[in-house]
Amino acid sequence: MDELFKASKIAFASSYSFVIKAQNFHWNVEGMFFEPLHNLFGKIYEEVYDSIDTFAEQIRAMGTYTPASFQRLSMLTQVDDETQILDSKQMVIELYEDNEKMLKMLQILFEISENNKQYGFSDFVAGRIDAHKKHGWMLRATLK
Ligand SMILES: [Fe+2]
Description:
It is a single chain. It is built from five helices and no strands. By secondary structure, the protein is mostly helical. The N and C termini lie far apart (42 Å). The structure holds fe (ii) ion. Residues 26, 42 line the site of fe (ii) ion (FE2).
């Protein structure tokens, strides 16, 4: 289970960082496409944020602790923090790339979960993969 605990904590911390990134862009986006991008980033961060509590409780149910401090989350995350104010297109590109990272991470987590016979958790992770696939579609379509 150690591999699963580690991978689930990394994916959880990365999901939380992804929420902060999308929320950052929702708040700070500027330019001609302010309104649609503000709304797109808003929809994405809300969807991912809505999964955070269930994600944390699934980790607890498997028998380990959930990382829940800024320090622990930033140690574990694979979604890098953005401290600069980017232009609007760069925001879409960066969130798209982070979303691709999330997808790969969640696919690996699904496999590890299956190997450990945590089928309920796999089901949750499969739902997250579907949600991020949809976010990826919208971000990719925005970039065309
Ligand atoms: Fe808002």
